[in-house]
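FAQ

Q: What does a record look like?
A: Structure on top, sequence underneath. For example:
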């Protein structure tokens, strides 16, 4: 029988945590986000655990629940509910160059501030004291949004800042991962402040969050210690841009996107990502995507994003940004274009039901899901089911619960 986790500890220990930070936001007296020895952000208990006190956390945790509502005017069995699919890029050439891909999420954040639809943006950025790592930030100006542009391939805890954002009592937007968007939508069911203050949730179509070990392996290759870093830029300054490492004593190292990510076996993707029910941003207002034919870049280009508007608010925001010149709209897309641009998302959607059955067959809990067509898209892949079950039985999905001082 399929069961869901009944405690924060069960979420972590069964590999269902993605380190979003919601635990710390809702119960900072009980949970603190901690980087584990495995290079993952996980909630660590500050004292004796009390699952009954964590009901609000579990009601929105991405390791417990994953839901999306149809809010668009069109529907596709793989890509879900949407109103518009198309190509776009930042209207400002510098933003387009500096940000990941075409700078759409950065440009939307800037537009929300310029138009005063939002007073600040909750997102993540490189930690200035440890630039290989990421930390949540609230950007009040367009200059801050642009300065903090760029994808962060690794652990991010953006939702640890959710309560601080709500406490300001001002309209704001969130730029985060698709799983974070799902958590925010679930949280909104019990916190009316989100409907009052949150004007947009913007996400990237996500290939999965790697643990920090992926980044550490790059430093090891160059013989660089983390405390020597001044810059660790994963993408940007072109599309897809080079991964660039700079040290305080003036050394610099670069690696192409394909050199870093071509070997999927070395991605070090976290367990929750391997069973992600919504990597395509169905709970968001707008999702931005890489749009490389065949699913991989063939070289550098000027920067082009795919844009999927998921809600009336997302469609209105997109049109407003285009009208203001903060975004440039290119050609339209169809869902079948996205099948080509993001083939791994299609295969993940079709294999997900089998993977979840495999986990359940091994006696592990899984999240509750609704509105994501997991059963409808079930490819009945016996090999995926058996393989997932076997990996679960030998402990591949299990994680130790961290201690607060870890």
């Amino acid at each position: 029988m399929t069961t869901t986790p009944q405690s924060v500890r069960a979420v972590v220990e069964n590999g269902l945590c993605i380190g979003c930070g919601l635990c710390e936001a809702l119960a900072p007296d009980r949970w603190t986000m901690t980087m584990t020895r495995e290079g993952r952000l996980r909630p660590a208990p500050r004292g004796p655990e009390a699952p009954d006190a964590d009901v609000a956390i579990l009601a929105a945790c991405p390791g417990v629940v994953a839901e999306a509502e149809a809010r668009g005017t069109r529907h596709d069995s793989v890509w879900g509910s949407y109103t518009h699919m198309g190509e776009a890029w930042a209207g400002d050439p510098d933003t387009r160059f500096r940000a990941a891909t075409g700078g759409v999420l950065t440009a939307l954040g800037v537009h929300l501030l310029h138009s005063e639809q939002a007073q600040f943006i909750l997102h993540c950025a490189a930690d200035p004291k440890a630039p290989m790592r990421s930390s949540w930030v609230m950007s009040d100006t367009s200059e801050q949004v642009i300065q903090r542009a760029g994808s962060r391939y690794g652990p991010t805890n953006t939702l640890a800042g959710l309560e601080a954002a709500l406490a300001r009592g001002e309209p704001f937007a969130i730029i985060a991962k698709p799983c974070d968007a799902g958590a925010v939508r679930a949280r909104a069911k019990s916190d009316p402040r989100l409907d009052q203050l949150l004007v947009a949730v913007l996400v990237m179509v996500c290939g999965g969050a790697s643990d920090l070990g992926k980044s550490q392996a790059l430093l090891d290759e160059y013989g660089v210690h983390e405390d020597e870093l001044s810059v660790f830029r994963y993408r940007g300054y072109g599309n897809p841009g080079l991964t660039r490492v700079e040290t305080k004593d003036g050394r610099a190292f670069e690696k192409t996107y394909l050199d870093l990510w071509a070997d999927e076996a070395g991605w070090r993707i976290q367990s929750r990502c391997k069973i992600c029910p919504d990597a395509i941003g169905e709970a968001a207002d707008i999702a931005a995507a890489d749009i490389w034919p065949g699913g991989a870049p063939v070289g550098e280009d000027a920067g082009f994003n795919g844009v999927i508007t998921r809600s009336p608010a997302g469609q209105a925001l997109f049109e407003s940004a285009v009208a203001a010149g903060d975004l440039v709209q290119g050609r339209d897309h169809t869902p079948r274009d996205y099948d080509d641009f993001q083939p791994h998302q299609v295969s993940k959607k079709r294999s997900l039901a089998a993977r979840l059955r495999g986990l359940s067959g091994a006696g592990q809990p899984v999240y509750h899901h609704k509105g994501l067509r997991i059963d409808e898209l079930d490819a009945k892949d016996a090999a995926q089911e058996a393989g997932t079950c076997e990996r679960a039985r030998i402990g591949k999905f299990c994680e130790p619960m961290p201690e607060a001082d870890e």
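Q: Is there anything notable about this one?
A: The CA atoms of residues 295 and 398 lie 30 Å apart.
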